[in-house]
Amino acid sequence: MTPAALATRLRVPSGPLFFPVTAFGADGSLDVDVFRAHVRDGIEAGAAAVFACCGTGEFHALTPEEFQDCVAAAVEEAAGRVPVVAGAGYGTALAVRYARLAEEAGADGLLAMPPYLVVAGQEGLIRHYTELAAATSLDVIVYQRDNAVFTPETVVALARAEGVIGFKDGLGDMDLMQRTVSAVRREVPGDFLYFNGLPTAELTGPAYRGIGVTLYSSAVFCFAPDIALAFHRAFNSGTPEGDATVNRLIDGFYRPFVELRAEGRGYAVSLVKAGVRIGGLDVGTVRPPLHEPADEHIKRLAELVEQGRALLREGV
Predict the structure, then answer these.
(1) Which three-class secondary structure state does DSSP give residue 167?
(2) Angle CA(297)–CA(301)–CA(304) in degrees, nearest 5?
């Protein structure tokens, strides 16, 4: 897939952007067959792209060999129907290694996650991401979160770098994001992509849309694709009826889900994985240092999913 083709397909997606969980067996080892089924189910449900081995996919817990196996499996299941973007992270040398493994596995692009541990200055961040982008032929989406926070000027520099096609925001500072979008629009005219990358991005979708950011990652799509698809269609409809559906789902499902997610550290991953299990696919538990949600929280999640589906029926 050419850079222009990838950017075009991500800019105008026909469905949610799917961030699959990574499946582990009862002994904690990678279960590629179940991972394949999860990816296949998501694509058949209407995903517009697969972001394999990223935050929701526990990139931090995978060995390089497991990472490459998962990316290759996602590429094979996608079979060219949708693009596959793989995670890449840690220090520059390791990030480059993961990028090359993703390229060998057939990925179409990279989501570049924050460098490990260090809180780097802007000059170091520019060097890190430009070296990563130069290491392969894959296009790179830079992920702002945690210890990787960028000034608008730095994002302008990255937008000018060969191979960097987009910027995903997991910080949630709307003032900074507005200034970033404005700076890049003025200094680097073109089709630079922006993504809302907060843990449950649908909740803040309307706010991000106000500054021109309509692409978002959907963790809910992992375990309740019908709810995520209904929200996505309504969000992109541009109609009063669509806005009413968005508000109904935010009030009755997404806000309570975010409040439940906030009750445990790491729930942005472990609660999603529990949701996939509730749906009938045994993807196993999370690996340390993450931990499983409390039984009461899993029960509440199951109730919330049913509540969300009831809201969909009300809107028919």
Answers:
(1) strand
(2) 135
